[in-house]
Here is the input.
Amino acid sequence: MGTAQIFRVSQARKLIAAGSVDEVMSQLQPGEFFWLHYVEPTAKDLDPLIRQLGLHPLSVEDALDKNSIPKIDIYPDTTLVLINAFTYQEKKLHVQEIDMILGEHFLVSVDRLGPDGKPLLDGITATEGDAWTDKHVGPAYIMHALLDTIVDRKLLAIEAIEEELAQAEDALFERPADFDPKSMQHIRRSLLQMRKSLYHEREVFMKISRRDCPLIPEKAVFHYRDIYDHITRCFELAESLRDMETSLMEIDLSLRSNEMALAASRTNRSLGRLTFISTIFLPLTLLASIGGMSEWSMMTGPENWRITYPLFLLAMAVIGTISYWLLRWLARRDATRDDKD
Here is the structure.
């Protein structure tokens, strides 16, 4: 069973702790409302609220489901607002659901335990003083304070990813050989999760800004529009970080391609030199094999070796020189044609 905090907001705008829902409802005076804050509730905690507060069963079902997408469901007497909280720890993004059910005289908020074992909205009751002004008070303003806190904390996760990308960028340009593209995959996944969540959350606050929810007063809508601006900013930051991550991957691929091209060029030059040398010595090897046979002495006469062998060596030198300059001329001609093309 999860933990629960039940407060009654008096006409003096003070939070008064209550023991149970029935107790707070029996003490409720005109103009007052109450706030039920649950942490990791179970069906045993929320199901009684269907009868006590007239909650729609589907809103309770969504509040118990931890994997729903952000949305707003407007029922005849209540409104469900589902939003995600971001926590980025140890290079992993944790996206967790927070639910709020708004009624005319009450607010039910459902919190979750974060990766550190503490509630995501730990200490949120300290913000209740910012939830209303001297002229405005109501559950919609409490919900605004909660949502505003959640959205502001999203920036912490986005800034952590931005800092990690900046470090990866410095490492890529300073030590490109040590850069590991696999280290960027978790950032890509995190940004995709963020984008998916923020896209749906923009739709939530857009509907509120259009005054689709009758339980949110017109004067409170302006505060929600400010949250919509913050959500839009977060969405744009996530998009820009995705572009930055993609650019880093492309730069890394380009650097690796350049390294491979340089290695291939060095290999081609080495092969070219070996081929050049082999082409020159191939006919000389043939001539040397012929000149070294006993038939050569028989053809030229053994007594004439003092003349035939020097002439033979001279012929080999001339053929080698002609082959060298012929190959150099062919290489220059091909290079000139390549430059023209």
Remarks:
- Confidence is low (pLDDT under 50) at residues 129-135.
